[in-house]
From TrEMBL:
All residue ranges annotated as the Type II secretion system protein GspC N-terminal domain in the record: 14-160
Primary subcellular site in the record, as a coarse category: membrane
Location(s) in or outside the cell: Cell inner membrane
Alphabetical keyword list: Cell inner membrane, Cell membrane, Membrane, Protein transport, Transmembrane, Transmembrane helix, Transport
Protein name (record): General secretion pathway protein GspC
Superkingdom in the source lineage: Bacteria
Biological processes per GO annotation: protein transport
The keyword Cell membrane is assigned to this record: yes
One term under GO cellular component: plasma membrane
Length: 293
């Protein structure tokens, strides 16, 4: 009996060690699974969709109620993308047309003393523009010459011409034909002017402004008047005795020290019975008097 006792004890010891090994293995596996969870199942599952961006219109109440004060009160408007051109979408607006713009006169000097008088035929509105000004919302004024002004429309330069330049080829001599009988000298600095001829010339103020080139005359940093140059002998300026180099100062004691005042002065001559023109000729003050008959 004692001979079998030792082998039994060894067998029992081995069984106990095997059981303890299994228990220890289960404990280690449980601890490892807690520290390193399985990822196989998670990797095959689809990723959750990202949260949808909240519609900006949900914040419209903040603007409408003026949460941050009346200055921030307003309305949030959704952006609508324009349909692509050529596929049934609305066509882009055409560039502003300059067909109804006419150049009436120019004054060319320094950058700040260069002007263009332009009329909009559709509204009969006349305005004086400096370089860089927006011309009736059509485009900025970029260049001014004697008979032409240039604006930029849609990235391209577009010319605005005087009536004389537009009709030069068709009827070059018609406007000048009526001016030789406009005025007749009666003495030194005195003229008799035909009323009908004067009114006819003033009705075509655009043509009259092309009969001479008027440039600002600056004295002591201020515009004192306009110096006449390139005077056409048969034009309205030439027939009333104005020469190249004359500086026009006042018309009926109204100073013409800006393009706006010069236009107003010429427009006011219609219907007058007498006209007084103050100027500087050869450095000396001179006065011309005109009787309108």
């Amino acid at each position: 009996m004692q001979r079998w006792l030792l082998p039994l004890n060894l067998l029992l010891a081995l069984l106990i060690l095997a059981v303890l090994a299994l228990v220890a293995s289960d404990l280690v596996s449980f601890k490892m699974s807690a520290l390193f969870p399985r990822r196989a199942a998670g990797s095959s599952a689809p990723a959750p969709p990202p949260p949808a961006a909240e519609d900006l219109l949900s914040f419209s109440a903040i603007l409408e109620k003026g949460l941050f004060g009346k200055a921030t009160q307003g309305k949030l408007t959704p952006i609508t993308l324009a349909a692509p051109a050529g596929k049934g979408g609305a066509a882009a607006p055409a560039a502003p047309s300059v067909s109804d713009l006419t150049l009436l006169g120019t004054a060319v000097g320094s950058f700040r003393e260069t002007f263009a008088l332009i009329v909009k035929a559709s509204t009969h509105e006349e305005r004086v523009f400096r370089l860089g000004d927006m011309v009736f919302s059509a485009g900025p004024l970029v260049a001014v010459k004697k008979d032409v002004a240039e604006i930029v429309v849609g990235g391209k330069r577009v010319k605005i011409l005087t009536p004389n330049a537009v009709a030069e080829a068709a009827k070059p001599g018609a406007p000048a034909a009526g001016t030789p009988g406009l005025a007749a000298p009666t003495g030194a600095g005195n003229y008799v002017v035909d009323a009908r001829a004067l009114n006819a010339a003033l009705d075509n103020i655009g043509q009259a402004m092309t009969d001479a080139r008027l440039l600002p005359s600056v004295k002591d940093g201020k515009v004192e008047g306009f110096r006449a140059s390139e005077v056409k002998p048969q034009g309205i300026f030439g027939t009333v005795g104005i020469r190249n180099g004359d500086v026009l100062l006042r018309v009926n004691d109204f100073p013409i020290d800006s393009p706006e005042k010069a236009i107003q002065s010429f427009a006011s001559l219609k219907g007058q019975s007498r006209i007084k023109l103050d100027m500087i000729r050869d450095g000396q003050p001179t006065t011309f008097n005109y009787d309108i008959r």
